[in-house]
Design goal:
There is one protein chain. It is built from 7 helices and 7 strands. By secondary structure, the protein is mainly α. The strands form 3 sheets. It has a 3-stranded antiparallel β-sheet. A two-stranded antiparallel ribbon has the order 1-2. Strands 3-5 form a two-stranded parallel sheet. The longest helix is centred in the C-terminal third of the chain and has 36 residues. It is globular, with a radius of gyration of 18 Å. The two termini are 34 Å apart.
């Protein structure tokens, strides 16, 4: 499923390449979901003017993302992939096995959302939001979207290393060792961390280009 997200992100990116949105005068409000599934509550249409979030707002964002209907769907899809590839043999197959895959998959999403969007951002005074650029060439926007995995903004608005993303996902992976009995080695943990960061990067790319693609293909469907 992570490969599907990456492939979809690249499709959206290449579809938007060549579009220069420098003449866009006002940022568009972010839709609640991308592709009707992926939660998009923490996307901000612009960095300017910068308004920091209070801890309560950070936990609200994490709750919206963690318990959105799209998260339940994504958990079901990842659970299906896990069962299909027999990634945790001790879970078994059939309905009972799928229930275990689904429960752990959903736990991954919820814990990851709270660690990267609420707990670590609150403790480290960092902003968990993705700020769309929305202008410039497709390649510059691609680099910008991918880069927000590495850097973010502090509550004071300064740019700094994204400890919340890296540390939050590392903490979520460490917690997941409690319910993944078949995958507790350092290699397994590194693989899960890399996958999660890759999925988050793909998500950023989707967040950056989705309004362009929605506007482009939405108009075609509407006959404009």
């Amino acid at each position: 499923m992570d490969r599907v997200l990456v492939a979809t992100s690249l499709f959206l990116m290449f579809s938007a390449l060549g579009q220069d949105n420098a003449q866009q005068t006002s940022p568009e409000p972010a839709p609640k979901r991308i592709l009707g599934i992926i939660p998009n509550y923490r996307t901000s249409p612009s960095l300017v003017p910068y308004q920091p979030l209070a801890p309560k707002q950070k936990f609200k964002l994490a709750t919206q993302d963690a318990f959105d209907r799209g998260t339940f769907i994504l958990a079901a899809l990842f659970a299906g992939q896990g069962q299909l590839t027999n990634s945790n043999p001790s879970f078994g197959q059939g309905v009972k096995g799928y229930a275990r895959y689904y429960g752990t998959s959903f736990a991954d999403w919820v814990i990851g959302d709270y660690m990267t969007e609420a707990v670590f951002p609150t403790l480290l005074h960092q902003d968990p939001r993705y700020f769309r650029r929305g202008t410039g060439s497709g390649w510059s926007r691609l680099r910008y979207a991918a880069g927000q995995i590495i850097w973010t903004h502090s509550d004071s608005g300064r740019t700094q290393f994204n400890f919340s993303e890296i540390g939050g996902n590392a903490a979520a992976v460490a917690i997941s060792n409690a319910y993944y009995p078949d995958n507790r080695t350092a290699t397994d943990a590194a693989s899960r961390l890399g996958t999660q960061i890759g999925v988050d990067m793909a998500s950023n790319i989707l967040k950056e280009f989705w309004p362009d693609l929605y506007r482009k293909f939405g108009r075609k469907r509407g006959g404009k």
